[in-house]
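Researcher: I'm preparing a figure for a lab meeting and need a structural model of a single chain. I don't have an experimental structure, so a prediction will have to do for now. The sequence is pasted below. Please return the structure as tokens so I can convert it later.
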Amino acid sequence: MRSGCRAGFLILLMSGWAFGGDGVVDLAHRMQGPDGAHLFGTDEVGRDLLARCWLGGARSLTLGLALTALHLAVGVMMALAAQAALPARRVVLGLADLVASVPATLLALLLLAFLRPGYGALVTALAIGGWIAYARLALVQLDALRDDPSLLQARLNGAGPWRRLRIHLLPRMAPVLLAQASAGIGAVALVEGGLSFLGVGLPPDQASWGQMLATARAYFLVSPWPLLWPCLGLFALLLATGPDLQRRSGIPEDG
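Model: Understood. Here is the structure written out token by token.
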């Protein structure tokens, strides 16, 4: 997927906050296929699938962007703390290994079992553990740049730690961290969809791809549309936020 197509899809998905909706129950038009009135069809209670898929996608993307930004910030701060002193490094790496030993979905389920259901509980559950990949990447980059001549020169010229971080370190670390962050957006959306599919994510009255899939599977033989559109939306989001395999392989974009 080209960069322009990715950006266009993400912008279109975010516009679901303005044009999407949770839908209105209309039992007289339940389980209908696509037509002029409902371009994606309707679900088991007659709600418009286009509006629900659009808003559900906007919710997933917004959650992915917000949590990925949080994971990135926490990961960089953890890496900086780990590089500052050996004891701190052992604590950070030990904590990362401990949290990483539990799969993200399982960890979120364990936390949600002790938290009151709701949007805040979902955000809290998804926020735990996502920083590990960024911390490890940032720490590797910091270790590689420790003896860089330009950093040594900046230190000799009197540049403080913040200036060295802002001018010399972050710009060099950004490409790797941003590539990880791009994939992280889709990962957060995937975990959120899985939790909603299991019934512990967003409330049932709020449109969510995972919750829509969980409900639609019982009606697949009656109408496949409620199951098809959330699947395609989640697949497209993962493609749009995933790594650019074509660029990494060196294949020309026009080839």
